[in-house]
Amino acid sequence: MKIRLTDRSFLKLLDFSPEEIRYLLDLAHCLKEEKRQGKTKNRFKGKSLAMIFEKRSTRTRCAFETAFAEEGGHPVFLSTDDIQLGAKESVEDTARVLGRMFDAIQFRGFRQDHVELLASASGVPVYNGLTDEFHPTQILADFMTMEEVFGRLKGLKVVFVGDTRNNVAKSMMIGCSKMGVDFTALGPQELAPDSEIVELCRKEAEKNGCRICVTDNIDEALNGADVVYTDVWASMGEESESAAREKLLSPFQVNDELMEKTGKTESIFLHCLPAVKGKEVTESVIEGPRSYVWDEAENRKHTIKAVMVATLT
Asked: Whole-angstrom Cα distance, residue 84 to residue 141?
């Protein structure tokens, strides 16, 4: 089956089939090898990318900006101090203007409906660099890293530890359900993922030969895990809840003892970063031999470049 993604937006993994996700991952592996060999093809020559940031970023901004520039394009950074998005001007009106001046738009902010409005009104591909609901580009980088380590996705077991309601956990659950990866959400019941998204993912998982589990039982969840994944205990915009979250999530800290519960010497640790060392993960784990977080961070660039190449060329 020939995959064609030209002019598509990349807003959430729910919008993409397993075959389309597979295509993006294969393309990312090829682009990473091109980069290693010092090859450039100027695929975005004469094109421009609007990069809208309501939330601060290291990996997302650097990945989009360098990936687009390396292919000969011109990325333009726009913070909320620079444009009128949702203030004096509606999101739709901003989208109409940007769509006439740019070939694509990246949005990193709070509301999923804002990135959806940008996509529907701009007439150009729009990429979700993170919203409170979803973080799809992160999951592509995670999957690429897992394939580099294990040589496959299907049949692996991922355990996300901590606040399993957040955008990364939710997006990972969706991605795993589509790609045949067993997924366990491990955390306190108070921070369990929404039942609607769990049921949706379980239906998808049934089609693709994998399982979705939600539990607060640490021993059962970790047994047999290939990948242990965590994120900060309080996401951007939730800093006021840090103390309460720490009390609730301390038993779920990823430390050496927890990693041993996988029963596998080859199991690895992932984190979307930035990390608060000593909180959700100990320094011995994130800086240890099981950690692939720096490969994972680099792969943000290659997978984001793959999304843009697939949708703009």
From this structure: 31
φ/ψ (deg, to 5) at 282: -80, 155
Judge whether 103 and 49 are in contact, CB under 8 Å: yes
What is the average pLDDT across 262-290? 98
Give the pLDDT score at 88: 80
pTM exceeding 0.70:
yes
Residue predicted with more confidence, 88 or 13: 13
- Percent of the chain with pLDDT strictly greater than 90: 92
Secondary structure class of 156 (helix, strand, coil):
coil
**Which residues belong to the active site?**
108, 135, 138, 231, 272, 300
Indicate the burial class of 264 (C-beta count within 10 angstroms; 0-12, 13-18, 19 or more): middle
